[in-house]
Amino acid sequence: MKIVEYSRQLQWVGHLRCNHCQGLNEAWRSSGMSECFPHFFCSGCSNVIHRDADKELVWEAATPELLAQIAATLPYCPCGGRFTPGAGPKCGHCHQQIDLINDPVEYLRNPHMVVMDGACAFSDQRPPYQVRIVD
Length: 135
Ligand SMILES: [Zn+2]
Ligand SMILES: [Zn+2]
Prior knowledge:
Shape: globular
Strand content: 25-35%
Distance between the termini: 21 Å
Number of strands: 9
Bound molecules: zinc ion
Low-confidence stretches: none
Mean pLDDT: 96
Oligomer: single chain
Number of helices: 3
């Protein structure tokens, strides 16, 4: 798989704090300008998917019905989990899910996609890539 390296010096590389163990996880976060919504994390790992086809659906309105419609079409992740509304990235320290998403319907239009160091980003537009945070 293609690997994309992001420097720690970049504005959009930072630390995501785990709400269970308070551990810090290096991650890249997309800017609001890149409009990476909606995106969905895997139920089993920190991989994330963002599809332009879904964006067209939620452009006008984000509703529970649309969420259910999109959720039904979300694929399985190579890890065996499935991209699922409400799933969050997993902490590299305690391995629990970081609670990033309070309201999955509201989150449909959150443009700030978080890709943890080592996680893969999937799309309907281009091949998947793995993110690595480097110096
Ligand atoms: Zn943790
Ligand atoms: Zn997965």
